[in-house]
From TrEMBL:
It comes from Evansella vedderi. InterPro entries: NAD(P)-bd_dom_sf, Sc_DH/Rdtase_CS, SDR_enzymes, SDR_fam. It comes from the Bacteria. The lineage of its organism: Bacteria, Bacillati, Bacillota, Bacilli, Bacillales. Belongs to the short-chain dehydrogenases/reductases (SDR) family. Gene3D superfamilies: NAD(P)-binding Rossmann-like Domain (3.40.50.720). This is NAD(P)-dependent dehydrogenase (Short-subunit alcohol dehydrogenase family). Pfam families: adh_short (PF00106). CDD domains: carb_red_sniffer_like_SDR_c.
Length: 234
């Protein structure tokens, strides 16, 4: 299978890249910048996996950058099987509604929801060329309406919007057998999750790749699931 993963140079994105390669897949690793220091681990993986790993520069905030990435991708393949919208930002933590910086909120919405919209808008034709394809949007428990809590306004609201995008894409694409899921990856030890998190991204990443491989049956009537494919509270 051929995977395109955004935010692939660190955290969960890097783990998804590693696991996909270990499972014998080809990965197109989307990164915001290609400075050697930022993609050191990807370059090391490239030495091992050669043509099975391609690094593609993409800034999901920029439609021009998404189009440029698409052009790079088309130069290497005419289709992909799995699109994982992983790139995201968690900012304005611990702030009350009165303290929120509106420009910071705008940035979160631009990356966390408009970013996936831009990518799906332009990459969808590459997914439509095969069978059993998937769009996996990395969401969060913070997006749950029934488990809502005070704080993380920009992140939670933008991820709730991502869940709605996933539902709409599911309705639009179900006749084409394109699986669409909005996935809570768990609280992980990453730059975003911090050291107190109980999970490691390699562990949750294995479950997400198995969802892409269709090894797990989804029983939820909604597309919001955890990394094992179990239903999340909407």
């Amino acid at each position: 299978m051929k995977f395109f993963i955004t935010g692939a140079n660190r955290g969960l994105g890097l783990s998804l890249t590693k696991i996909s390669l270990l499972n014998g897949h080809t990965v197109f690793a989307g990164v915001r910048g290609t400075e050697e220091a930022k993609i050191k681990e990807l370059l090391e993986l490239k030495e091992t996996y050669n043509e099975n790993l391609e690094i593609i520069e993409i800034d999901v905030q920029s439609e021009d950058s998404v189009l440029s990435a698409l052009a790079q991708l088309k130069g290497k393949t005419d289709s992909i099987d799995v699109l994982i919208n992983n790139a995201a930002i968690l900012n304005e933590r611990g702030k009350s509604i009165e303290e929120l910086d509106m420009e910071a909120c705008r940035l979160a919405f631009d990356i966390n929801i408009l970013g996936p919209i831009r990518v799906v808008k332009h990459f969808l034709p590459l997914l439509e060329k095969g069978a059993n394809q998937s769009i996996l949007n990395i969401s969060s428990e913070a997006a749950s309406l029934t488990n809502s809590y005070s704080g993380d306004y920009a992140y939670g609201i933008s991820k709730a919007a991502l869940n709605m995008l996933s539902e709409k894409l599911h309705c639009y694409l179900r006749d084409q057998d394109i699986q669409v899921l909005s996935i809570h990856p768990g609280w992980m030890k990453t730059d975003m999750g911090g050291e107190n998190a109980p999970l490691y991204p390699m562990d949750t990443g294995k479950g997400i790749v198995e969802l892409a491989e269709r090894k797990k049956k989804i029983t939820s009537p909604y597309v919001f699931v955890d990394y094992n494919g179990d239903p999340m509270k909407i």
